[in-house]
Amino acid sequence: MIDIRNLSHTYPGTRKQPPRAALRNLDLSVREGHFCILSGPNGSGKSTLFRILCGMARPSGGSVEIAGHDLSRDPMAVRRLLGVVFQSPAVDKHLGVGENLAIHARLYGLRGTEAALRREEALEWSDLRNRLGDRVDTLSGGLARQLELAKCLMTRPRVLLLDEPTTGLDPSSRRNFLDVLRRVQRERSMTVLMTTHIFSEAEDADFVAILKDGVLLAEGTPQRLREQLGREVVVISPRDPAALADRLSAELGLTPLRHGDELRLDEVEPAETLALLERILTRYRPEIHSISIKQPALEDVFIHITGGNGIKANGANGGNGS
Amino acid sequence: MGVVISLAWREYTRFIRQPHRVIGSIGQPLLFWLFLGSGFTGSFRPPGMEGVTYLEFFYPGVLMMMLLFASIFSSITIIEDRDQGFLQGVLVAPVPRMAIVLGKVAGGTAIAMLQSLLFLLIAPFVGISLAPASLAMVIPILILTSVGFTSLGFLLAWGMRSTAGFHAVMMIFLMPLWMLSGALFPITHVPGWMHWIMLANPVSHALTLLRLPFHAMPGQVVGDPEFAVSLAVVLAWALGCLYLSMLRVRRVERGVPVSSSN
Ligand SMILES: Nc1ncnc2c1ncn2[C@@H]1O[C@H](COP(=O)(O)OP(=O)(O)OP(=O)(O)O)[C@@H](O)[C@H]1O
Ligand SMILES: [Mg+2]
Fold first, then answer.
1. Rg of chain A in Å (alpha carbons)
2. Would you place residue B93 in the very low, low, confident or very high pLDDT band (cuts 50, 70, 90)?
3. Which ligand is nearest to the CA of B255?
4. Of chain A residues 46-75, which have a CB less than 8 A from chain B?
């Protein structure tokens, strides 16, 4: 649905500032009906990519096709399919909720009863239904954000781009927002590309891509990315954590980390996990309440791949663990 | 078309909802006209204009000033719209780029016309007489001029990121256009260099168009060769600025071409 080929973008420099490369030879495809998450450290080029995708900047090189339309040749056709939720608000604060929706409907050629029906539909899930007359600057941040999403749902885009849509939302608003987004996306088999720094939002995505310095470091399903990390975590809950920790390091040469009443063994090769579990259980069974194997979360993958916290990155394939 | 109307409607609604703005936009030119006009009336005796008081002379000039200020106001909203994000939503919508220009210009023109009509309404009470036929001629001239002003403002404001920068442009470019239009003093008695600047200034021609119906009936006005020339200049000004504005909106920022080095 979205095909990005060999895309590069370099911002022009000024007298004081050299040109800055924000995207380098990026290739990325998002399949129709997929919910795709794009993440990456600050300044990795995500917003730059979004500006290009919605036609607000022309790239230095490469091509973008959305639903078969070449973006540089036929931007109008692409705009008709596209819904965009910007990182910053894109509503008129001085007008009412209903008025903002009305203007948005007109921009997308909706009028009369059709527009009214679509508005009902777009607001049905939200907390804005009885606040149509309120001015936007009297809404709370979360409610204003709901308006942004409602606006985009109203036009029934085939492709929806969201740039950090949940910044500033409280955890429960964020949940509501994502639940609705996901439901609507499935019902209409809409293609969604969303950037976020919050990995709990990405765990059930169809596809995750991680960008750094304008280069795609990793892409795949959340499951595959976690597997690529090539590590698992063994979590033990012993009777006496301190005593068991001493014995594990003295007798088995392991380096357990203590988290409260738990002991964790990080960076275990998946191939060795079962053997390790067996060794621990045969020796220390009476000392142990429970023992479990945990998959690393996407956040661990992100930190590992982008080289945060001093962990050495080992490239896009992540094949050979350190 | 629906897009133009709803964008213009937004502009107009935002203006109307600020009553102090409406009052200020009428009151300020009115005071300007009363004080300057009354002050200069005693000493204003240009040869060839014996029957005209300064108050009468200055009246069309103040109308022109209202159009200028309405255009400045609507240009500033472009910068605010960009700053507050509303503009990005409009830019990614599937609307012709010309509709974005026309929406803004039509909104600014509607505001300017509201002010002008209120100002024309009080004309009889302050001793300015205008026959209905002349009034019917003044209104289209005001609309045309307002389109010229607002689209010029659009062109200047589109690339700007701060309203402070726009204030500078306004003071050194837009205000002089008005001051050198013959609004304050007749074009006939100025130094030679200024005469040429004033002749090249499209606002002078707009003012010529606007002044004529105040002194003659429409029948005579249309026959005046000066009228035809000025109309052509103002039309070219308005259409030219509209067209350039559309080109400006269509232009998107570009990345610099990829070089082989990294
Ligand atoms: N207008 C600009 N002019 C010059 N350089 C820019 C401009 N906008 C962004 N950049 C640079 O391009 C790079 C990518 O920026 P971008 O905004 O795409 O990052 P991002 O991934 O969205 O980051 P964040 O997570 O903080 O939102 C950064 O190094 C940034 O400094
Ligand atoms: Mg960003």
1. 24
2. very high
3. 1
4. 54-61
pLDDT band at B90 (very low <50, low <70, confident <90, very high): very high
From atom 12 of ligand 1, which residue's Cα is the shortest distance away? A22
Mean pLDDT over residues B95-107, rounded? 93
Return the closest-CA partner of residue B180 out of B207, B141, B215, B209: B207
User: Between B231 and A299, where is the model more confident?
Assistant: B231
Asked if A90 lies within 8 A of B6 by C-beta distance, the reply is no
* CB A314 less than 6 A from any atom of ligand 1: no
CA dist A215 and A212 (Å) reads: 5
Distance from CA of A128 to the nearest CA of B (A): 20
Distance CA B37, CA A250 (A): 100
Element (H, E) at B52: none
Distance of CA B165 to the CA centre of its chain: 20
Residue A307 has pLDDT above 70, yes or no: no
pLDDT at B220: 80
Of A9, A19, A108, the CB nearest to B93: A108
pLDDT at B246 over 90: yes
A317 pLDDT more than 60 = no
Q: For residues A149 and A98, what is the distance between their CA atoms, to the nearest angstrom?
A: 14
A-chain CB neighbours of B8 within 8 Å are none
Cβ contact B210:B112 at 8 Å: no
DSSP B182: T
- Best CA proximity match to B8, nearest among B169, B206, B164, B154: B154
Q: Across the interface, do B252 and A56 touch by the CB < 8 Å criterion?
A: yes
Q: How far is A99 from chain B (nearest CA, A)?
A: 9
B170 Cα distance to chain centroid: 12
- Whether B255 sits inside 8 A of A60 (CB atoms) is yes
b/e sequence A77-108, b meaning 16+ C-beta within 10 Å: bbbbbbbbbbeebbbbebbbbebbbbbbbbbb
Q: Rounded mean pLDDT of chain A?
A: 84
Secondary structure class of B253 (helix, strand, coil): strand
Q: Which of B3, B6, B256 sits opposite A10 (nearest CB)?
A: B256
